[in-house]
Every structure is written in C-alpha cells, then in structure tokens.
Backbone:
C-alpha cells in the first residue's frame, strides 16, 4: 500500500515540474497534453463518438482526467514493483518517460526542446520514487530486500511527510505551470484588437425570432459548443500571424494580420453545427461573425480549374478539406476575426478561423488557421477522412424540441411545444409536431435572419392526462423532409426524429 502511494506521489512530483518546464517551451510539450494529443489523433472513431456523446464539450477534460487516473494506477504498480526490484521500477519510469518524449516530439512543428519536460518529469519521478520507496521499505520491514534502495532512518511520520512533500510539489508545479502558461497566453494581444467596422453590416434580427422556451436565438461565446482536437487552445499572436494561400494556384499569396484588417469585412449571422451532434443534441450554435469573404481571397490566388478541394491548416497541424466550389458559390464563407461583436475567443480560433454556412465543422470550420492549400480530393485526405468520416459533408436538415424537456411533467391544458430547426444555406419551410400516434400538426415558424441560421418554432397543444410521446420533423427549402430513419453521426451526420417523453397529470 505504502509503495503504491509512493509511486503515485513520485509521478505527481514529476508531472508537476514537467508542467513548469512546458510553460517555457510550449504547452503542447507538457507530458499530459502531448500524450493526450496522441490519444486524440489515434483513438478509433466509435470511441471518439462515445466520448462526445457522454461528455459533450467536456470531452477533453474527461480525457485528461482519464489519463491521470490510468497514470496513477501505472505509477502505483511501479511503486509496488520497486520494493522487489529497483531495476524493474526504473524501467517502468523510463517507459513512462519515453512515451512522453515520443508523444511530444510527434506534435506538429515540435523541436527537440519539446522532449525536455518529459525528461525532467522522468528524472524527478525516479529520484522521488527512490527516496519514498526507501522510506516505505524502512516502515514495512527494517530488513528490506537487497534489490530495494537502502532503508533510511525514520518511520511512518517521515514517510507521510515525504509523500506529502512530493504531492505538494506535484500540485504546486501543476497549478504553477498552468498559471505560467496562461501568463504567456495571447489574452493581452486579444484585448488589444480593435475590430474594423463591417463594409456590409448584418441584417437585423427580425422581431419574434426568439420563441419563449426555445434556446437563445444568438448563442453567447461562453455557451457556444467547442469540439476540436486541441487539448490546449493554440496561442497565436496576431502580430506574427500569417496566412499562406498556395498549391494549385496561379498567384500564391501571403497575408499578414494588418493586411487582413484592411480587407473589406462582412458581418453575418451563421449557425454552425458539429457532425458529432446526435439527434436532439446541443453541439450547434448561432453567432454573429465578422470576417472577410474567402471567395475574394481565392479569386486573387486564381485556383487552377482542376483544384476541387481547399485544404485549411490550423497552426497545430489539423486539416479540413472543403469543396472549392462551395467557397466560391456566393455564400457568406468568411475568414472570421470576430464573434458576437468581439474578437474571436481563443478557444474558438483567435485570431482567425473559417466560417462556412451549410457544411459541418470538420470540413469547413478550421480554427487558428494559418494555411490554405488548393488541391484535389483525389490527392489529399484531410484529418478526419482516414478516420472514417466522409470527405464532403453538407449539413442535414434537423430539428429539436427544447420545451418540454424529456421526462418533464405538465398540467392538463395548453402546453407550448417549441424548439429549433436548421438546414443552413437552404432554409426551413415547415416544421411539424406529432403527439403520440396523432396526425402531424404544422408548427408556427418564427422569422429568421436568413437561410444560414436556425429558425425557431412553436406549437400549442391541448394536453390531456397521461404519458405522451412528442416528435418533431422539419422540411427544408429543397422540399426534403427529415427521415425517420435513425442513424449515428458517423460518417456524415445523424438522422432521425427528435423524440421526448412527458407526463401530463
């Protein structure tokens, strides 16, 4: 028991000091974040879907927590092994170190310095473990095995003090490393950004767009979903930011932050949705975006006729592939710098990201973008395509019941059923509600800013006592009505009718 505790405390001390070193080298060199990043990149699609379905936007917190739990178990096993064989324990620490080093070195644009935090963590963990195991051995048996480190004088109190010190080093180092990392973040640079006024202001939100009981028509930045592969949002200073447009183009371009700010800006409400959003899910949000049209940039670069894919790259190496025709068909596809009247929040792509109406985010919404390459779908698969997702993913027509919630209880009489429906860049023309096996009833549609945003709807139902099943379906401007066939998000978006069960009493 004491040996296992010693192993966990030693690992904590090592990881804590590793975090401090990573604060000066780069957040992605942190042993935890580096290993977590490799897990994100290699985890099978079904496992990823399960994580998002269970934890939603907290999937990254769950991943880090799970990694720490597994590491604690491994460290405890190494500690117990150390009582029998110090060589075996040292091999366990070395394996832990090698995994961290390899993970850090395989991160995008990582230099040799990225290995230092894991090396420091391994060295500190080994030193602390040797000391704590000696204390544990002296408490457990004065006649410790020859293979174990020589016992030191002292007893239970000395061992507990040693464990406490190691744990404190881990806690202070961990929190201190996070604090130092935050101090090196681009918070001040973001606060200094002054957004230019749009040459094309947004259409006003029409009166009545907000239906009582439905989600907010405009999603705040704090409530806007975040699903990406970065465990720590990249910190990109606008002063050094550049966008490179190259590949199958006649006129390659490089644009700086200052040059971007001089370009004509457009402000538009656009609803974005994640392909991992299940039927009735909340991985969708509507915001006011400010940015410059991507079409104008591509026109300046002059893509070759055979270039049918635009590959956007994030500063952390993540890629998405967007049909070139979509970005040039006149829709408000933006290189965005603002969200809801303020500079982009760092977790949502500061300083620059892509916003494209009508496509799921994994094929369009590149955050922290630094590169645009014109290529062909036949020549390049973006990040999620080799992992089983479709290369092209237009958003499917969907609807959701926001009120009453599943499991709700209501009194007999008039009950308002309300929610949202979306078919970005096509628009919604009809929403229907079904109660139990009754005929479908047409809901009242609220006005919306444009076909690029969701629309809210409501229906007044005369509720009678008993248990009831409520369903909703939507029809888009192309005349396509949601299918009842239930399908999971992979490979190109979920389908089915959102259904809730309520009780009237």
Residues:
């Amino acid at each position: 028991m004491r040996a296992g505790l010693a192993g966990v405390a030693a690992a904590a001390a090592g990881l804590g000091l590793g975090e401090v070193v990573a604060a000066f080298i780069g957040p992605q060199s942190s042993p935890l974040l580096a290993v977590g990043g490799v897990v994100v990149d290699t985890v099978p699609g079904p496992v990823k879907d399960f994580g998002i379905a269970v934890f939603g936007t907290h999937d990254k917190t769950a991943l880090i927590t799970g990694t720490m739990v597994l590491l604690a178990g491994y460290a405890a096993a190494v500690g117990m092994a150390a009582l029998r064989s110090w060589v075996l324990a040292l091999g366990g620490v070395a394996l832990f170190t090698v995994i961290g080093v390899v993970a850090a070195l395989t991160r995008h644009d990582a230099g040799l310095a990225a290995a230092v935090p894991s090396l420091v963590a391994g060295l500190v963990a080994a030193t602390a473990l040797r000391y704590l195991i000696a204390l544990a051995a002296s408490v457990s048996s004065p006649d410790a095995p020859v293979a174990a480190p020589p016992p030191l004088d002292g007893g239970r109190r000395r061992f507990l003090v040693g464990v406490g010190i190691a744990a404190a080093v881990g806690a202070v180092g961990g929190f201190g490393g996070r604090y130092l990392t935050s101090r090196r973040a681009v918070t001040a640079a973001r606060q200094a950004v002054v957004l230019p006024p749009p040459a094309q202001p947004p259409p006003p939100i029409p009166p009545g767009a907000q239906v009582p009981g439905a989600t907010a028509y405009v999603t705040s930045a704090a409530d806007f979903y975040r699903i990406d592969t970065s465990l720590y949002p990249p910190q990109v200073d606008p002063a050094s930011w550049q966008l490179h447009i190259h590949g199958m183009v006649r006129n390659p371009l490089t644009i700086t932050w200052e040059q971007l700010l001089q370009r004509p800006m457009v402000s538009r409400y656009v609803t974005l949705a994640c392909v991992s959003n299940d039927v009735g899910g909340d991985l969708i949000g509507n915001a006011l975006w400010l940015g410059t049209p991507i079409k104008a940039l591509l026109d300046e670069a002059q893509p070759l006729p055979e270039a049918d894919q635009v590959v956007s790259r994030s500063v952390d190496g993540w890629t998405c592939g967007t049909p070139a025709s979509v970005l040039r068909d006149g829709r408000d596809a933006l290189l965005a710098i603002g969200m809801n009247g303020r500079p982009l929040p760092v977790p949502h792509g500061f300083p620059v990201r892509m916003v494209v109406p009508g496509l799921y985010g994994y094929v369009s919404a590149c955050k922290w973008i630094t590169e645009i390459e014109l290529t062909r779908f036949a020549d390049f698969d973006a990040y999620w395509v080799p992992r089983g997702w479709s290369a092209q993913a237009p958003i499917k027509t969907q609807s959701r019941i926001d009120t009453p919630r599943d499991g709700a209880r209501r009194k007999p009489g008039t009950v308002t059923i309300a929610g949202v429906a979306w078919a970005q860049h096509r628009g919604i023309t009809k929403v229907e509600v079904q109660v139990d096996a009754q005929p479908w009833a047409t809901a009242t549609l609220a006005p919306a800013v444009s076909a690029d945003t969701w629309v809210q709807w409501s229906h007044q139902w005369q509720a009678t006592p008993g248990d009831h099943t409520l369903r909703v379906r939507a029809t888009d401007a192309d005349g396509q009505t949601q299918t009842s066939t239930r399908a999971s998000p992979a490979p190109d978006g979920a389908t089915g009718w959102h259904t809730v069960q309520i009780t009237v009493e």
Notes: Residues 142-148 have pLDDT under 50 and may be disordered.
